[in-house]
Amino acid sequence: MKKMMLVSFSAAAFLAVGVFSAFSASPDGGGANAAQANFTVDLIKTNVLEGEWSGLEVTQGQAGPATLTVKGNTLEFHGAGADDWLKGTFELHDGATPKELLGVVTDCVSADAIGKKIYAIYRIEDGAITIEGNPPGSTSFPTEFGQAGGRQFVFKHATQTNLKADVTKTNAFEGEWSGVEITQGQEGPATMSVKGNTIEFHGTDSNDWLKGTFELHDGVKPKEFLGVVTDCASADMIGKKIYAIYRIEDGSITIAGNPPGSTSYPATFGLADCREFVFKPKK
Q1: For 181-217, how does the pLDDT look when each residue is reduced to its tens digit (9 = 90+)?
Q2: Which of 46, 94, 128, 254 is the most exposed place for a label (fewest CB within 10 A)?
Q3: Mind listing the pLDDT tens digit for each residue in 93-142?
């Protein structure tokens, strides 16, 4: 959808007590899909997830930071809330479409979730892992990403530098901003509100708006803005990533982003396929 400011950026994250519990802790302990062989599922080694991961929950209305630690076939998750955590074991089914994560909760703030199964799907793109799981009580895997009722997270390795980019504090964007879109043929007013790592954008059209979370990479040229859409007029954009570049000059911020579906940052400003905005602090 071309009329989405920071949605000129592309697609997008993972778990919680809601993950494992929201990843469908199944009371039967069996799991219909886990035993099915009518589709070719290959049980693969779990080391594709090995290591320390940091990321964001992109579930609508539940956006926030999250971490994931994987050692062998064990997993520990922590969400934004102090009581949003769990430990578990898991296996990966890489032969299914989408790929599947089948886990069991071994420790959790919610005692009744311990021993229950986790039904989730995952994908790996550009070094990031997106995981989505069904709500507690489900006994099947999600069929696709972005479904209502599940929780979704996006993680990157905690040590990953993303082209030697330094993740900087987001307060360079903090506050209320007003500005204009300068994309050729789409000129018009726009506003941006930033609080911490959350952002809300409104364009000229009433349907041209979005909410999201983001981080800034200040160590590359041009500087990068990596976000995830958490709410939007177009439901199919929720959970997708935002790839944009920015610059700050004379107190104003210029942001340019690639169209939806892109998986890379714009190389420079003023490209024909990007949307570009200039914002100044509201007085």
Answers
A1: 999 888 999 999 999 889 999 999 999 999 998 888 8
A2: 94
A3: 988 999 999 999 999 988 888 999 999 999 988 778 899 998 766 789 99
Contacts of 202 (CB under 8 A, 6+ apart): 190, 191, 192, 208, 209
Burial status of residue 267 (CB atoms within 10 A of its CB: 0-12, 13-18, 19 or more) = exposed
CB 208 within 8 A of CB 4: yes
pTM, 2 dp: 0.49
The two structure tokens encoding residue 211: 């909410």
DSSP 92-128: EETTSSSEEEEEEEEEESSGGGTT-EEEEEEEEETTE
CA dist., res. 164 & res. 179, Å (int): 31
- Nearest CA to 205 out of 7, 12, 11, 9 is that of 7
